[in-house]
Design brief:
alpha+beta, 24% strand, globular, 503 residues, 19 strands, 4-stranded mixed beta sheet
Length: 503
């Protein structure tokens, strides 16, 4: 994703109807093998990668979508066009003749209900976190026109709408098990622990994809996933390890939008001491992972967003590997009464990415080598979320949450509020300067927006020492020779079946 694509999309304001890529001659079913099973298929949770890569834009569509394959910026989906009103609100003109998979028609009432549902306190919709720090009010103009007014005004609201999955007006506020959407596929089978099947819809409003049916299988071991594609037991694995990516005809590397990091809880001692947080950063030999457990082409991280993001600060430097410096900081903190020998629990997500177990065990050892007492606990995705997001357990001890954060949208607003603002759902601290920078950057445009984000990136890394940032990842996928498909920066979080061609 090039920064210029975002800038261009924002500058245009009004985006017109998109063109569709001509179809190839082939068609048929495929099998996709993934690392993690979906614990839910709830549309408003599709911003979580293990759910989104199955249903986002396949079953559940959005008003707009970000074209990262051709760098065209924000493009139409269920909205045909949009413009900004004089008061700063945004008006969306909806596509007509669209039906949900249950046969009901699509109109502005469904859009308003979908947004209100995301913001409801009767559920825990993940996409709500991206609208933190603002109040957004939808109002219906007519059956196929709807306004969204944001306070403060949001210049990138059309980009934010790429995260709002549309469901029928009749959908309850509580989570559902079987999604009903306007997309080219519908859920036809979900056997937990075995498979999920999406089947093509004959009544889809858009161009009919070549993939007629997709069966999703789940295997935690990346070598097993690669072998399944090689043996013809599956057609695509969007995530294999670099070690297994040995066939240039089927294996592709791609710029990943995921950042691997350790989220620190500043509220609990000893992590509330900045010297301890610096010591954690100095204790880890990030460079040693490159070309071994982490792909050689991965980038060492200095921000929660990848280097392709608006406002990227090239002047922020990676913490050096300095175990002696880490030990000195811990000694200084201990002399001031900080209980640096308190056991700290690192919580990691099983099968989160290739070699996650080995990487976390190596980090545990490096932290122990400088004097930290560290326990390592692996959990499944649903339990991981309990530690990752608020409300945090009141009786918790010092915790570090190992995670990957995805931002393929090209703007830090999709990360900064919920990761770092005082009220952010995954924020481990409160800092008035951080809150102010996020508020001002979110409302700014052009160079001012980029400069404010750049200032925030430096402040979080150098002064707050908010997290232990590790790697901007590079992904590897194995694609059967019978398919025509190249992964993109969005592939790890969203795998559109309509982009897959069959030879």
């Amino acid at each position: 994703m090039k920064r210029t694509a975002i800038s261009c999309a924002l500058a245009l304001g009004t985006i017109m109807t998109s063109a569709f890529t001509p179809a190839y001659a082939g068609s048929g079913p495929i099998k996709v093998v993934l690392a993690e099973e979906a614990d839910l298929l709830e549309p408003c949770m599709a911003t979580r990668s293990n759910i989104g890569r199955i249903i986002m834009e396949n079953v559940s569509e959005t008003l707009t979508e970000l074209d990262v394959r051709s760098n065209k910026g924000v493009m139409p989906r269920l909205a045909e066009k949009w413009e900004q009103n004089a008061d700063g609100s945004w008006r969306f003109h909806l596509r007509q003749g669209v039906k949900f998979s249950d046969g009901s028609g699509f109109d502005a009432k469904d859009v308003k209900h979908s947004f209100d549902r995301i913001m409801s306190d009767k559920n825990a919709c993940e996409s709500r976190r991206y609208f933190g720090g603002m109040k957004v009010t939808p109002s219906i103009v007519d059956d196929y026109t709807i306004d969204f007014k944001a306070d403060p005004v949001q210049p990138i609201l059309p980009l934010l709408m790429t995260l709002v999955t549309i469901v029928p007006e009749e959908t309850p506020l509580e989570f559902i098990r079987e999604p009903v959407g306007t997309g080219p596929y519908k859920l036809t089978n979900w056997t937990p622990g075995q498979q999920i099947v999406l089947s093509g819809r004959d009544d889809y409003w858009g161009t009919k994809p070549e993939v007629t049916q997709a069966t999703y299988l789940f295997r935690a071991d990346p070598a097993v996933r690669a072998a399944m594609v090689q043996a013809g037991e599956a057609d695509l694995s969007p995530s294999i390890s670099q070690l297994d990516a040995t066939n240039p005809k089927t294996d592709f590397s791609y710029l990943d939008s995921e950042t691997v990091y350790l989220r620190l809880d500043h509220n609990i001692a000893p992590l509330n001491d900045v010297r301890v947080r610096r010591a954690l950063n100095l204790a880890i030999d990030r460079q040693a992972f490159l070309g071994t457990l982490v792909p050689e082409s991965a980038v060492l991280a200095t921000a929660i967003v990848p280097p392709t993001t608006l406002g990227w600060n090239k002047d922020v430097k990676v913490f050096p590997f300095d175990p002696d410096g880490a030990k000195k900081l811990l000694e200084q903190a201990k002399a001031d009464g900080v209980k640096v020998d308190t056991p700290i629990t690192v919580i990691a997500r099983s099968a989160n990415f290739p070699n996650v177990t080995e990487i976390m065990e190596a980090i545990q050892q490096q932290l122990q080598d400088v004097g930290f007492k560290v326990d390592l606990n692996f959990v499944e995705v649903a339990e991981h979320e309990r530690y990752y997001s608020k409300p945090f357990a009141k009786d918790r001890g010092p915790q570090i949450v190992a995670a990957m954060h995805d931002n393929s949208k090209g703007d830090p607003s999709f990360s900064m509020f919920f990761k770092y603002a005082s009220e952010g759902t995954q924020s481990g601290f409160s800092d008035p300067k951080v809150d102010d920078l996020i508020k001002r950057a979110s409302a700014a445009v052009g160079d001012e927006r980029a400069n404010l984000w750049s200032e925030l990136i430096a402040y979080l890394h150098d002064d707050v020492v908010a997290d232990v940032l590790l790697f901007h990842m590079v992904g590897f996928a194995r694609v059967s020779e019978r398919l025509d498909f190249k992964p993109t920066i969005a592939t790890n979080s969203m795998l559109q079946l309509s982009e897959i061609k069959i030879k």
